[in-house]
Structure formats: C-alpha cells, structure tokens
Amino acid sequence: LNVDHALKKYGVDNSRRRILLALKSKPNASVSDLSEMMVSKMSTTTKIVYRLKDEGFVDTYSCEDDARITRVILTEKGHQMTQKINDLTNVVLEQSFEGLTPLQIEKTMESLKHIFKNLSR
To answer: Which of 53, 55, 69, 106 has the fewest CB atoms within 10 Å of its CB?
Structure first.
C-alpha cells in the first residue's frame, strides 16, 4: 500500500505497476502472457496495456510468427518507471524491517518461505 500510494503521484496504480514489472521480468511478453502472470482477464489486461501505451510506458507489435498475438515491450520511459518502482519498493522494504536484528530478519524470512511453500501445494 505504501508503494502504491507513493506511485500515485507518478500516475501509476497497482495494475499498471504489476504489468510494468511483469514486462521487466519477461520482455516481449504477449498480452496473453501478461494476463496469466497477473491472474487477470484478457480484456482487463488489454485495456491496461493500451493505457500504458497511451502514456508512453510500453509499445506493442504483432508477433512475426502469428499476427494474432500482440507482444508488449517497455519503452525507455517504462524502464525508468520500473526503476522508480524498484527504488520505492526497496525503501519500503527497508522500513518494514526497521528495528529487527539480522537474526530476526533471517528467521522471519525462513518462516515466510515455509508458509509460501505450504500455500503452493
């Protein structure tokens, strides 16, 4: 929530943030790939992608192998925004562990990994 609040001044909401970060991890993803990554309806993802395109954060192109597939890439402005997102996330993450010793942080991370593993079953 803190990251989302900070990003609002840049005009980036949670949905936009998720797509930008997904593209950072999977360049040239299709709209369908992004939809799966975000666990979102294809129509919703498509709308967000085209908003991001209008805002200059991404560009789209038709796949050479199959013109029905639309691929999405980050523009320079999109790369800059993902850097801002990561910087803000790092600040919030550091704040969240304030006052904990390295051992406490390590034990917390171990517990979270265990919980994540349980939820992945």
So the answer is: 106
The DSSP string of 98-113 is TT--HHHHHHHHHHHH
Identify which of 1, 3, 4, 49 has the alpha carbon closest to the alpha carbon of residue 22.
Answer: 49
pLDDT tens figures, 72-99: 999 999 999 999 999 988 888 888 889 9
Q: What predicted TM-score, i.e. pTM, was given to this entire model?
A: 0.80
For 19, other C-beta atoms within 10 Å of its C-beta total 28
Residue type, 103: L
Structure tokens at 49: 């992608």
